[in-house]
Amino acid sequence: VEQVDERPGELTARVLPERSDALGGATHTVITADGDRTRIVYETQLAPNFWVPSFIGRPLMLRTLREASIELFRNVERQATP
């Protein structure tokens, strides 16, 4: 569970540890126009509140981040297309 703050072209999400399975974490996304393209800067940190073996956790997290990023890009393109 995260607290999300939105500003024009920017999203910041902070994990609420008391309501999550994470000790902490934050995600910061900035979306700007770059000529006729859109630039997206996405940074995230996450500290789970449980042990995850690296041979399982890393591939799982990478797949989840990849899928979330693709969905983010699709949504941005959907909004940008007249």
Structure description:
With 82 residues, the protein is an alpha+beta fold. Helices cover 33% and strands 45% of the residues. It contains one helix and four strands. It has one helix at 54-80, and strands at 2-7, 10-15, 22-34, 37-48. It has a four-stranded antiparallel β-sheet, with helices on one face. The chain is globular, with a radius of gyration of 15 Å. It starts with a strand and ends with a helix. The model has no long low-confidence stretch (mean pLDDT 87).
Short description:
33% of the residues lie in helices and 45% in strands.
Look at the helices and sheets and give the structural class.
alpha+beta
The total count of helices amounts to 1
Neighbour order of strands in the largest sheet = 1-2-3-4
Morphology call: globular
* Major beta-sheet overview: 4 strands, antiparallel
- Measured distance between first and last alpha carbons: 33 Å
Evaluate the radius of gyration: 15 Å
Contiguous runs where pLDDT drops below 50 for at least 5 residues: none
Task: Please write the string of helix (H) and strand (E) elements.
Answer: EEEEH
Q: Approximately what portion of the residues adopt beta-strand conformation?
A: over 45%
Total beta-strand segments: 4
Give the integer mean of the pLDDT values.
Answer: 87
